[in-house]
Each structure stands twice: as structure tokens, then as C-alpha cells.
Design goal:
The structure holds 2 protein chains of 2 kinds.
Chain A lengths: L1 H17 L16 E6 L6 H9 L6 H13 L17 E5 L1 H10 L15 E7 L4 H17 L3 E7 L6 H12 L6 E5 L13 E2 L2 H7 L1 H4 L2 H7 E2 L2 E2 L1 E3 L1 E4 L2 E5 H6 L9 H13 L3 E3 L8 H22 L9 H16 L9 H9 L3 E6 L3 H7 L5 E5 L6 E5 L1 E6 L5 H12 L1 H11 L2 E2 L11 H12 L1 E4 L9 H18 L2 H14 L5
Parallel strand pairs in A: 3-4, 3-5, 12-13, 15-18
Antiparallel strand pairs in A: 1-2, 5-16, 6-16, 7-8, 9-16, 10-15, 10-17, 11-13, 11-14
Helix pairs in contact in A: 5-17, 12-13, 13-20, 19-20
Chain B lengths: L2 H36 L17 H8 L3 H35 L6 H9 L6 H12 L2 E2 L3 E2 L1 H8 L15 E3 L5 H8 L11 E3 L2 H25 L3 H9 L4 H12 L1 H16 L3 H6 L11 H11 L3 H32 L1
Helix pairs in contact in B: 1-14, 2-3, 2-14, 3-8, 3-11, 4-8, 5-8, 8-11, 9-10, 11-14, 13-14
Chain lengths: ~500, ~325
């Protein structure tokens, strides 16, 4: 028995040492000692001396430690004391009243020191996501671990449903939400995807978490604008992926005598011609999962219209009838003509594999492709922003949202705040292969690609990805825009496609 | 027997049937009605909106100018094309297999099982396997799958783009047939809305592989039920084997054929899992089907009213196939 509780307390201590995460958790239920006063540790203080001073007993330092640790859970200006013998000058202590202290000592059992470390919320935390792949699953578990050390009494339920880009998850979640059953928090592509869940009806804003955790100071301005919908924040982003990346095989580039990645579309097609002349298939393209074409086209739009012009497409400022959209369609048509003929049979991963295997030279895909390059231990691959998008970061982000009917809203809010914290993002993102949404992450644990991406993130113009839920409402992104692109990729009819894109924008409520 | 127990028996039978009747009424027919109702509303986004919109969703699908209508027309074309070729392939292969197995071959049960086994595999598995087999590869990168095999054995001419082939075969308006159709007021038949997308062939192959064994089983049962005397009699009358099949066996198998058409037909009209796992929507929606469109419209685009409208149309089309069969069956039973 004794052994077991020592082990438990050791684990607890260890866990608490590891946790540096601010938590917006609701006030813990237990302990119940209020601070009669606060005290800041001065030189030559030690806890026994202080307990003698406040309570007249050198052995009454337990309540000091318990009350301070309890307070630390909600307010990080208070110290966290792991070891009563190790304190430092400047630590802020919570000093309970003498009556509270005596009451605490009556029930305190030194063999069960868990009470010293405060107790957080209770109950469950149900987190819904589609993170089931090895890397993302491991990353999610890291955040769960951090949450658990903060809230040891909360049972975490990981409600994942597999399926790329959440196709299966979203259908299931919608049914749950409409039926009045909700998880406590769920994964949501940042941006207008929230429209899927009728914001205000099934999900509620998390503005208060932004305020309490100071998120507006640590997320880039462009991202905050992207997250805001109907003047509210609906989720806290955990990570950032980049859509506009051109991946290339360095060996094949060398074989064709190409020195650098193409920066513009003209250079791109010149490069492609050189590769072709050298007997190399220039472009690998996927299409089986029904998002790869739309994904490529959004990067072409961004590269042709520039950051402001591209953003304007989704806010009504840029007309879809613009001549530059025509240019983009022509570029896309030309791009497809350089791609593998069987693109509709390949998934994005299979297309990336062609570049890894040296069977094709270039591929435009989001930066989740980097995980595949590293998993294949490929060393001769390079990356650049897709043609024309230098200085533009086409972003997508996973965030956690708060359902209106979350069964444990306090736990959910603590979780959402946790997801936005520095510690969580630094632990999660290297495993997931994405970068922090925050700009203050320590990059030492990130690989070279992610370091370069994070550098761009801090300085580039950030624009939302439409294919991955950020730029437009689901009906526009997954029907109007998407169907027009699919039809165009086969028909090559520029005028018809542009008319369809215009009609889709009108349909989405942006008169052209 | 006196009347009393009979009444009692009837009461019990109604009582015993009641739960399933009730469950059917709620979970099948009420939900069908609900879907029909939703299709007449303006429900978009997760929050239900029951504002009455009449036939707005249907009009959008059938008569709209947007991509919604284009895609839906393609879906209907694909559904018809797929069903037609799938039925022809399945019935003819199934029949031939049944006739062959019926020749009192050695290890007949072994062959029977071999041909039936694909039916035990789920469409998802079939789809993934056939996708791997039929992925065509690229001339510059190199062929893969069955194209690679064809290349190795020197049958390059048989290589195909399979399910990535966006070609649609249809009667062009300027062809002689097209012009005639135009003159007799059937000009709409000469459009790519009425045609056959070549990419569907791959789906037909996979679905036929899976279900022709089942059709064989149906036909085999039918063949075994034809008394030998009838064939003997025909042979005595001087009919050759071909004539025996042509005039005796096939006509007697007609009820089996009808059942097979109904069973296979409703599977192919509603097909979803095979398409999702094998081809997705395909190039320019060449392998898109209404069920797939319904899922995307409802759950990805959250256009619930329009998704419900597609579901109702799908139900209606399946009903067109099933109801005559049910009526025929009921009549046949009544005659017995």
C-alpha cells in the first residue's frame, strides 16, 4: 500500500514538473482553502520558518504547500512547490487562514501526499477528431498527457473516426450535433468550415478563451482574421499546414540540368519542358480522393492573383470573371497536360511517391507530403513555394471548437486553451509534421522543412485555403467551386468553367 | 374446429406481428416520408430549416444551369449505363457458368464454390483490389497493373486508360443517326447526357466479377428444376442442343432471369461502396453515381434539402424497377 502511494505521488510530481501550461480551467472543486494573504518568499526563508510565523508551528507547512499548489492551477503567478525543501526567492505563496490550515492538517495523511498538489476538474473530456495516423495520433496523445497532468481527475475520451480530411468524421459529428449529443470539443478546420455546424446553434464562440489566454498576441494577425467569423472566434488552432508547396526531386533536376526550383509559372513550364526533353516525367498529380485538383487550382489562383486578389475571390472583392481567373484556368489546363495521364487513379500519396521514387520530378501538394518524404528516408528532395506564390502562405489549420451542448464545458474550455498553449503546440506539431499556429514556438525540435515553413509563416501574407475549409462556406468549397474544377480538369473548357465559378460565387451570396 | 380459437389465433398473430410492423412503419416508411418532406424545404447547413420551398431542389437538379444539374445529369447517365452493361455482363456470364457447371463435371461443388466466393467479399475490398489491378500508369512513367501485364505479353493494343478514361460515347448531333433523331423530335438523345462513359467499364468489370457467381447460383437452381423429360422430349423431336436451350431451357428460366434482373438491378442503381473505394467520382464525374453525389451534397456541402431530393429520386428509380416485379409476384401467388 505504502509503496503504491509513493509511486503515485512520484508520478504526480513528475507530471507536474513537466507541465508548464497555463490553463483556463474552471476553479477546482476540492481543497477549498482560500488565501487569507499572499506572501512572496524572501532570502533565508524556508517553509517551516514560514509556518511557524503564520501558524505557530514548524510542522504546519503542508497547508501552505497545498494551498499554493491549488492556487497555481488557476493562476500561474503563484508558485508550484514540488518539494517542501526546495523553494526560491520571489515565489508567491498562498497563505490560508489559521482555521483553514488546522482543518487541512486534521484530514491530511502524509502517506497520501496527492492532496498537496491540488486537484483539478472532474468528470469526462470527450475530444472528437479524425487524427488516427501514426504521427498525428502520437501528437494528440502528447496534448492529452499534458491535459491529464493538469487535470488528473478528468477521464479523457479520444473519440476519433478515421478518414482523410475528416470526411467520415464530419458526417458522424453532424448527426450527433443535430441529435443533441455532442463531444466536449471537436476538430474543426479553422475558417469558414464552421458554417457546417451553424455557428451559434451547434457551436458557441470561444472569445473568452482568447482573452484569458492572450491568444490574440501570439497568433499572426492574418490568422486571427481567418479565424474570425461573424465577429467571433469559433476555435483555437493547434497547428498550421501549408497548401502551396512545390516538391521536387533533386536528382531528376540535376539530370535535366536545372539549378533552382521555378519561381513563376513561365519558369515552371520551361522547367517542365527541359525535364521532358531529358526523358523525365515532369509532373505527378493525384486526383482519386477528389480534393487534389481543387487543391492545385487554389495554389494556381493564389499564384496568379496575388495574396489580396486571391483573398478577394472569397469575400466578393475580386470578381470571378476577372481576366486573371481566366489566366489561372489556362495555367491549370497546361499544368494538367504535363501531368501523368492516370492522375484520376492516384491518391495524393501515390503521386508523392512518384516523386520520391524518381519517376516524376515535381508535385504540388500540401506540406503533409513532407511526412511521406521523411518516412521514405528520402534525402534528395527539395521544396519551394508553388509558382507565383513567393511571400504567400496558403494556410489551413486544425482547431478545436466548443459545441453548444458540450456535456463538460469547463473541461472543454480547459482543453481548448491547452490546445493553443505553447507547450501543447511544441509537443504536437513536430509529430504531426506541421508548424505552430503561435509565432513563439521553440523550433529546435522541428525538422528542416518545418523550420523553413515557420520562418515563412512569421513573415508571409497568410491567405486561407478553400479546399481545406478555411476560405469559403462548405457548400461553396465542396460543391460549387469543387465541381466546377473537376468538370474543367476533364473538359478543358475555360469559358464554361469560368461561368460555373461565377455562378458558384453568386450562389454563395457574392453577386458578381 | 370452432370459431373461438381461430379468432384467438388471429389476435395472437396480429400481436406477434405488431412490433415488426410498427418498427417498419417508423424506421422505414416514416423516414422515407421524412426524407420526402425534407426535400421540399430549404434546409441548408446543420440547423434544420423547414421553410417550404416546393420543388426547388428538384428543379435545381433537373433544370438548373449550374454544376449541380450538370453533375446530376451525368449521375443519371452513369447509373443507366452502368446498370445496363452490368446486367448484360452478369446475366450472360452467370448463365454460361451455370450451363457449364450443370454438365455434371467432376468436382462440381468445387467449381460452384469458386464461382460463388467473390460474393462473400465486401464491395470495399473488391473496389480497392480492382483499383490496384486497373490503375493504368502513365506512358512516360511506365504502365502498372493489368496494363503492365498486357505490355509484357505483347498485347499493347489492349492497354486502356480504364477508369481514368474521360471519353463519353454518345450519338453526336451531326452524325446521320443524330440528324434523324433531331428530325423526329428526339434530338435530346443525341447529346452527351445520353451516352456511356468509358470509365464505367472498369466498374462493370469489378461488379461483374463479384456478382456473376451469384447469378450462376440462381441459374443453376433454375436449371436443376427443369425436368429432364422436357429436354429428352425435345431431343426426341429432333432438336439439337442449341435448340433445346433456345426453345426449352431459356424460356423456362424466365422467372429466374426476372429475379436476377431485380436483385442485380437494385444493387447497381444504389451502388456506392464499390465506387467510393475504387474510383471516386472519376475524371469529370465519369464514374460518379447518385448515391455518391447524395452523400457529398448532404454531408460535405450540408445541402440537406438537395441531398434528400437526390435520395427521393433514387428511391423512385428503384421503385420503377421493383414495383412491377412485386405486382407480378403477387399476381402469380394469387393464381396459385
Amino acid at each position: 500500500m505504502q509503496k503504491k502511494s509513493v509511486l503515485v505521488s512520484l508520478l504526480l510530481v513528475l507530471a507536474l514538473v513537466l507541465s508548464m501550461v497555463p490553463s483556463a480551467s474552471a476553479a477546482p472543486a476540492s481543497a477549498g482553502m482560500a488565501c487569507a494573504q499572499t506572501y512572496t518568499i524572501a532570502a533565508a526563508d524556508w517553509l517551516s520558518k514560514l509556518s511557524d510565523k503564520f501558524y505557530g508551528s514548524i510542522l504546519a507547512y503542508w497547508p501552505l504547500m497545498a494551498a499554493t499548489n491549488q492556487k497555481n492551477l488557476e493562476d500561474k503567478t503563484f508558485a508550484h512547490i514540488d518539494n517542501a525543501d526546495l523553494i526560491d526567492v520571489g515565489w508567491k505563496l498562498c497563505v490560508p487562514s489559521k482555521a483553514d490550515a488546522e482543518a487541512f492538517l486534521k484530514t491530511f495523511d502524509p502517506n497520501n501526499p496527492a492532496a498537496l498538489f491540488g486537484s483539478g476538474a472532474k468528470g469526462q473530456l470527450v475530444v472528437g477528431s479524425w487524427w488516427t495516423n501514426a504521427g498525428e495520433f502520437a501528437g494528440l496523445n502528447e496534448i492529452f498527457k499534458q491535459y491529464k497532468t493538469q487535470n488528473p481527475d478528468v477521464e479523457i475520451v479520444n473519440a476519433t473516426i478515421a478518414g482523410g480530411a475528416g470526411t467520415n468524421f464530419k458526417g458522424q459529428l453532424l448527426t450527433q450535433l443535430i441529435g443533441g449529443k455532442a463531444p466536449d470539443s471537436f476538430q474543426l478546420h479553422a475558417g469558414l468550415e464552421v458554417e457546417t455546424y451553424s455557428p451559434g446553434t451547434y457551436v458557441v464562440p470561444v472569445d473568452d478563451i482568447y482573452t484569458s489566454a492572450g491568444f490574440e498576441k501570439v497568433f499572426p494577425k492574418d490568422l486571427l482574421a481567418m479565424l474570425k467569423y461573424k465577429d467571433h472566434y469559433w476555435g483555437v488552432p493547434v497547428n498550421i499546414h501549408r497548401s502551396n508547396v512545390l516538391w521536387y526531386n533533386k536528382t531528376l533536376f540535376a539530370k535535366a540540368g536545372i539549378a533552382a526550383a521555378p519561381a513563376t509559372w513561365d519558369e515552371f513550364f520551361a522547367t517542365a519542358d527541359k525535364l521532358k526533353a531529358a526523358g523525365v516525367a515532369p509532373v505527378a498529380l493525384g486526383g482519386k480522393d477528389g480534393f487534389e485538383l481543387q487543391h492545385t487550382f487554389e495554389d494556381i489562383l493564389a499564384g496568379t492573383l496575388g495574396a489580396e486578389g486571391y483573398k478577394g475571390l472569397w469575400t466578393g472583392k475580386t470578381k470571378w470573371s476577372d481576366a486573371k481567373v481566366t489566366d489561372a484556368l489556362n495555367t491549370f489546363k497546361k499544368y494538367i497536360s504535363y501531368a501523368n495521364a492516370d492522375h484520376d487513379a492516384l491518391t495524393w500519396a501515390a503521386a508523392t511517391q512518384l516523386v520520391i521514387d524518381g519517376k516524376a520530378a515535381m508535385n504540388i501538394m500540401g506540406d503533409w507530403a513532407n511526412g511521406q518524404f521523411t518516412a521514405a528516408k528520402s534525402t534528395d528532395y527539395g521544396w519551394a513555394s508553388s509558382p507565383g506564390t513567393k511571400g504567400i502562405f496558403v494556410a489551413l489549420s486544425d482547431s478545436f471548437a466548443l459545441p453548444a451542448k458540450a456535456p463538460n464545458p469547463a473541461n472543454a474550455k480547459a482543453w481548448i486553451a491547452q490546445a493553443g498553449s505553447k507547450a501543447a503546440q511544441e509537443a504536437f506539431n513536430p509529430l504531426k509534421g506541421s508548424i505552430c499556429a503561435r509565432t513563439d514556438c521553440d523550433l529546435s525540435k522541428f525538422n528542416d522543412y518545418l523550420k523553413s515553413s515557420a520562418a515563412d509563416w512569421a513573415k508571409d501574407a497568410i491567405v486561407p485555403s478553400v479546399t481545406h475549409g478555411a476560405a469559403a462556406t462548405p457548400k461553396w468549397a465542396t460543391k460549387g467551386y469543387a465541381d466546377a474544377v473537376v468538370l474543367f480538369a476533364t473538359s478543358g473548357d475555360v469559358a464554361k468553367a469560368q461561368a460555373a465559378l461565377v455562378a458558384a460565387a453568386v450562389d454563395a451570396g457574392f453577386p458578381q | 374446429m370452432s370459431r373461438k380459437p381461430r379468432n384467438w389465433e388471429r389476435a395472437v398473430s396480429i400481436l406477434l406481428l405488431a412490433p415488426s410492423i410498427l418498427a417498419l412503419a417508423i424506421f422505414v416508411y416514416a423516414f422515407i416520408g421524412w426524407t420526402g418532406y425534407v426535400s421540399l424545404t430549404r434546409w441548408e447547413g446543420a440547423a434544420p430549416d423547414f421553410t417550404f420551398a416546393g420543388l426547388h431542389s428538384y428543379q435545381r437538379l433537373f433544370l438548373g444551369q449550374g454544376t449541380d444539374a450538370i453533375r446530376f445529369h451525368i449521375d443519371l447517365r452513369n447509373m443507366v449505363g452502368f446498370t445496363l452493361f452490368f446486367l448484360i455482363a452478369c446475366l450472360s456470364i452467370g448463365f454460361v457458368l451455370a450451363v457449364l457447371v450443370d454438365q455434371r463435371v467432376r468436382a462440381e461443388s468445387f467449381f460452384r464454390s469458386v464461382f460463388l466466393f467473390p460474393m462473400a467479399v465486401s464491395f470495399i475490398v473488391t473496389g480497392v483490389a480492382w483499383r490496384w489491378i486497373l490503375t493504368p500508369g502513365d506512358p512516360a512513367i511506365g504502365a502498372v497493373g493489368i496494363n503492365l501485364l498486357l505490355e509484357k505479353i505483347g498485347l499493347d493494343s489492349l492497354k486502356s486508360l480504364w477508369f481514368t478514361d474521360p471519353t463519353v460515347k454518345f450519338i453526336t448531333p451531326d452524325s446521320p443517326v443524330g440528324q434523324i433523331l433531331n428530325q423526329i423530335g428526339l434530338g435530346f438523345l443525341a447529346s452527351s447526357d445520353v451516352g456511356y462513359a468509358m470509365a464505367l467499364t472498369a466498374l462493370v468489370i469489378a461488379a461483374t466479377w463479384q456478382l456473376s457467381g451469384y447469378t450462376m447460383a440462381l441459374y443453376l437452381a433454375g436449371l436443376r428444376s427443369i425436368p429432364d423429360e422436357l429436354r429428352e422430349a425435345a431431343r426426341m423431336d429432333g432438336a439439337n442442343e442449341l435448340q433445346v436451350y433456345r426453345h426449352i431451357v431459356i424460356p423456362l428460366l424466365q422467372p429466374i432471369t426476372l429475379s436476377a434482373v431485380i436483385i442485380l438491378g437494385h444493387i447497381s442503381l444504389k451502388i456506392y461502396d464499390l465506387v467510393v473505394s475504387m474510383t471516386g467520382s472519376g475524371p469529370g464525374f465519369a464514374t460518379d453515381v447518385p448515391a455518391l453525389n447524395m452523400w457529398r451534397t448532404t454531408f460535405d456541402a450540408t445541402l440537406f434539402a438537395q441531398g434528400a431530393a437526390i435520395a427521393v429520386i433514387l428511391l423512385f428509380l428503384v421503385a420503377v424497377l421493383i414495383i412491377p416485379y412485386l405486382a407480378y409476384n403477387t399476381r402469380a401467388e394469387a393464381q396459385r
